[in-house]
Design goal:
Distance between the termini: 48 Å
Family: Belongs to the MreD family.
Strand content: under 5%
CATH architecture: Orthogonal Bundle
Organism: Paraconexibacter antarcticus
Main location: membrane
Structural class: mainly alpha
Membrane topology: Multi-pass membrane protein
CATH topology: Arp2/3 complex 21 kDa subunit ARPC3
InterPro entries: Cell_shape_determining_MreD
Length: about 190
Amino acid sequence: MNPYAAPVAGRLTILGFVVCIVQLAAVSQLDFFGAHADLVPLVVAMTGLLLGSLPGAVLGFACGFFVDCALIQTMGLSSLLYLAVGYGAGRLREVRDPQAAAVPAVVGGAATTVVTVGYALMQFMLGTPIRVTGLLVGQIFVTILVNTLLSLPVYAAVRRWLLPVMPDDPRRRRRRAQTTRLSPLSRA
């Protein structure tokens, strides 16, 4: 059995519960230029980016299920979208291992795009009467922009929360060891 499984599961449970409650009770009430920020896809994507595809997908499914139950909306729709976001961000970490400083912003913007556009498309396919107007497109665009700006502080907060239970990645350890050597010119 993995020695990190229990501490990671505990931290993810607390993180998911807190972010869903904060999103539903406070952040969804704040208005930013006619749109609302959405912290749940950001936290799910950042968890996938930090821990991998499986923890990201599990947190995404759990948060989506909680949001669907709390808002009494179509069951499984948010779960599916958040699961895809967590899994996709985790696969990015596992396959490419991005190290650039802008990666959390790009992943946060992509996660928000997948969730907002995916939710609108799924509602349309389920037969919910949706009028696509300039106002709706503008709200989606502003939500993506606001979440992209919020993704860096959310990444820092999620990383700080998960840092005690993050497994040590041998690829990063090897890279760190190679970059700390002295240059041949500085040897005496």
